[in-house]
Design brief:
Blueprint lengths: L14 E4 L15 H6 L1 H7 L3 E4 L3 E2 L11 E5 L6 H13 L3 E6 L9 H6 L26 E3 L7 E3 L27 H20 L3 E4 L14 H17 L4 E4 L4 H6 L4 E3 L8 H5 L15 H13 L6 E2 L17 H10 L7 E3 L59 H6 L4 H13 L9 E6 L7 E6 L4 E7 L5 E4 L6 E6 L4 E3 L2 E4 L3 E6 L1
Parallel strand pairs: 1-2, 1-12, 2-5, 5-8, 8-9, 9-10, 10-11
Antiparallel strand pairs: 3-4, 6-7, 13-14, 14-15, 15-20, 16-19, 17-20, 18-19
Helix pairs in contact: 10-12
This protein binds alpha-D-glucopyranose and calcium ion.
């Protein structure tokens, strides 16, 4: 089925998220860079990932790790040059892989020249590029604002941190004089600028975008998010005309709306109503071996989204990302393998956060770096091997821009590649199984058959035109059973002991996961 003209490569994509400052430092300045990434592409491909999401790598004061952009058209010098990233694109393509950049359309840095112009009291081309009220005494609702920092009489809305002024895409139902409509010249010109930025990078060779805070661009939007959906439909039209093979994945958390807006896939978020944290990041996560978790609320919500988006399972469930705790902070040992058996068997493109494939740990008690705050512990430099700085950088350790995990037994990629029982090798196996079974593909169907409140295991069926696979996941360290009318015929994957099938009942061993053709 063709969905929002989904590019063909996306149906088979398994993503690896690279946080550029922490991946690989090629010039010993203590910060990762693009040339470093290029030297690690074979590693990513060897793991089985065929696509990359690169976090923002543009000129920025780095008050929010680069999500505060001051020049959308230029690679931050600490990462390299536009020529370097062009080479990255071609090295990625040489390996039959694809790469998404991070598009941050909602806000800029306060240092962006547009903002500096818009601060001026005299009207100019950029006066309405951001959301301003018309009096310093009036604040734009809810979002917070920047006030009293220039001669301009007004307050400017911010989107996230107070140094990230909100770009103006208009208000859904303007009520006040200073609120512009989504069809105002100012709002339309912001959209044109975003298109120019997208065009610039797509022409250079990137394959699409992960879009930051995609659902909150139009302000005072209604419940259906009609204003923001309509905005993205304009962008969809532009992409269909000019870049039909590019992919768009949203950080939105409402797949029905995102897909309507022309995105190909949407992320499940770790905040809001998704219940994602019930699985991995709460006091008693479902994937912990204690077996005291509850998967049912997550599954209910998932099913609701699945139905609302016309049974398009285009909800990406990431292993983690730069905004949340490392998976390993709450899921330990073999249970990480079981968590990945789940992540590699659900619909939507999988996303592996760099280092999660080797069980990198959340580094406790770090002082905030680049606006990370508690997120900083999940952003520590990649651990490649047992050499200086775990092979991340040749700089002296105190020069690393974030401290590494200093424990003696910290995991590293080289050791895990060599150990056939490692998490890395289990994930490698899982990716290869996923990619060789159409039923496990990104767009294939899912039907949950066992997901009861406070019960284990979790069981579902994935199906494509030519096969059906039953997936059974039991993170709990006790044997469990569930009623099942399907008879497993052939083992596609199994971790842990074998299941036992008798008369419409399957007994599942402790801490196990299995995929079975039915
Ligand atoms: C997104 C990013 C996050 C950033 C925020 C503001 O949630 O993932 O890292 O701080 O947007 O741009
Ligand atoms: Ca560097």
């Amino acid at each position: 089925m063709k969905r929002n003209n989904q590019p063909k490569w996306l149906s088979d994509a398994v993503f690896y998220e690279i946080y550029p400052q922490s991946f690989c430092d090629s010039n010993a300045d203590g910060i990762g860079d693009i040339n470093g990434i290029i030297t690690k592409l074979d590693y990513i491909k060897e793991l089985g990932c065929n696509a990359i999401w690169l976090n923002p790598c543009f000129v920025s004061p780095f008050g929010d790790a680069g999500y505060d952009i001051s020049d959308y058209y230029t690679v931050a010098p600490r990462y390299g040059t536009n020529e370097d990233i062009k080479r990255l694109f071609s090295e990625v393509h040489k390996r039959d892989m694809h790469i998404l950049l991070d598009l941050v359309p909602g806000h800029t840095s306060v240092e962006h020249p547009w903002f500096k112009e818009s601060l001026k009291a005299e009207r100019n081309e950029f006066s309405d590029r951001y959301i301003w009220t018309d009096s310093i005494w009036e604040e734009p609702d809810k979002m917070g604002s920047l006030r009293g920092i220039s001669d301009r009489d007004g307050s400017c809305a911010v989107n996230f941190f107070s140094h990230q002024p909100a770009l103006n895409y208009g208000f859904y139902n303007p009520e006040k004089k200073w609120q512009m409509s989504t069809e105002s010249e100012a709002a339309l010109s912001t959209i044109e600028e975003i298109k120019n930025i997208m065009r610039f990078w797509l022409k250079m060779g990137c394959d699409g975008f992960r879009v930051d805070m995609a659902g909150v661009l139009v302000k005072n939007d209604n419940e259906e998010k009609s204003g923001t959906v309509a905005l993205w439909q304009k962008i969809r039209k532009f992409l269909d005309e000019e870049f039909p093979d590019s992919a768009m994945i949203s950080e939105w958390g409402e797949p029905d709306k995102a897909l309507q807006g022309g995105f190909h896939m949407d992320f499940l978020l770790h905040f809001g109503p998704s219940h994602y944290n019930d699985l991995f990041r709460c006091k008693e996560p479902f994937f912990s071996s204690r077996g005291k978790g509850d998967v049912s609320a997550f599954v209910e919500k998932y099913k609701e989204n699945y139905e609302k988006s016309e049974r398009k399972g285009l909800i990406c469930i990431p292993s983690g990302n730069h905004d949340m705790d490392r998976l390993e902070r709450s899921i330990k040992g073999d249970n990480l393998k079981i968590a990945f058996a789940f992540l590699m068997s659900v619909p939507g493109a999988p996303f592996i956060y760099y280092g999660d494939e080797i069980g990198m740990r959340y580094v406790e008690n770090l002082t905030s770096v680049e606006g990370g705050y508690d997120r900083t512990g999940s952003r520590s430099p990649m651990q490649w091997d047992k050499t200086l700085n775990a092979g991340f950088s040749l700089a002296s350790p105190e020069k690393l821009y974030i401290k590494q995990d200093e424990s003696d037994d910290r995991p590293d990629a080289e050791s895990q590649i060599a150990d056939e029982n490692s998490l890395y090798n289990e994930i490698r196996k899982l990716i290869s199984i996923r990619r060789s079974h159409s039923a496990l593909g990104n767009n294939s169907e899912i039907e949950f058959i066992y997901a009861e409140k406070n019960e284990y295991p979790l069981a579902f069926i994935r199906s494509s035109e030519d096969e059906k696979i039953l997936v059974i996941i039991n993170p709990a360290d006790r044997e469990v059973s569930f009623p099942c009318e399907y008879k497993p015929k052939e083992v596609v994957y199994s971790f842990g002991k074998e299941i036992a099938c008798e008369d419409k009942k399957i007994t599942v061993p402790p801490c196990s996961a299995g995929f079975y053709r039915i």
